[in-house]
Amino acid sequence: MTETPGREQLTDLLAQQWEAIALLVTDLDEKAWRRTSPLPGWTLFDVVAHVVGTESWLLGETPPPHDPLRPKTDVRTLPHVRNEVAVLNEIWVDRLRPLSGKRLLALFDETTERRRAALAAMDDDAWQAATVSPVGQVPYGRFMRVRLFDCWMHELDLADGIGRSVSEGGARAETAFTELTLGLGRAVVKGAKAPDGSLITLDLTGPVTRQVHLSVAGGRGSVLDEAADEPTTVIRVDSGLFARLRGGRTTADRHPGEVVVEGDTALGERLVRNLAFTI
């Protein structure tokens, strides 16, 4: 299994990720900022506002006050808001929407620069301290791996919304894929209804090239370090498409012929259709 990068490495990867996001949107005009993104209810502006909001929250800040001249939205009623993390995300996005794209980008740069400084100033005890996160109470460093995953996925959202290609491999992607694959055991059992004894290999063909082995025993799915036996099902898919399927950005039906399933094809197809998860 992939190890969590150390504090300095992960801080550097986060800084690179924020720079990649800023580079993608730096030349957008105001109309382009308001294009729809692959995420329900969010524009490209909203995706960047979400990152600003989360990093601001990690700096101990609260959302700006609601503008009384704007209609007030009960974010809990929005169909894509499913948990308390999403509620907080949506409040930040809503409060930042009155800004121009240019002002949002300046705020993004200022906020992420302060986050770089805050991360660089942390010691190892703070990095290992238990903290509340979208994946439960975990060491702060694990939470930052979740942050890298989230920001990496949003880089893809922005690129897809703009219509640009970006590099989808490298150290940032490899680290993000650890989060993408961690919960696959649940998808195999709850989504695909795989019976005990099932052995599934996900063969990711690049730009993040790896094999992910899954087994089911006692009604529980597990991600294995290596294959225990010949798989009953093999699924071959480009890692970029896998990331978008796993992140709920698209569905397999929209990509005919791009996913190859061998062995127990019915099981494999059920898994491909039930990969989506939300942190």
UniProtKB/TrEMBL annotation:
It comes from the Bacteria. Pfam families: MDMPI_N, SCP2. Residues 14-159 form the Mycothiol-dependent maleylpyruvate isomerase metal-binding domain. GO terms for molecular function: metal ion binding. Residues 197-272 form the SCP2 domain. This is Uncharacterized protein (TIGR03083 family). It comes from Nocardia alba. The lineage of its organism: Bacteria, Bacillati, Actinomycetota, Actinomycetes, Mycobacteriales.
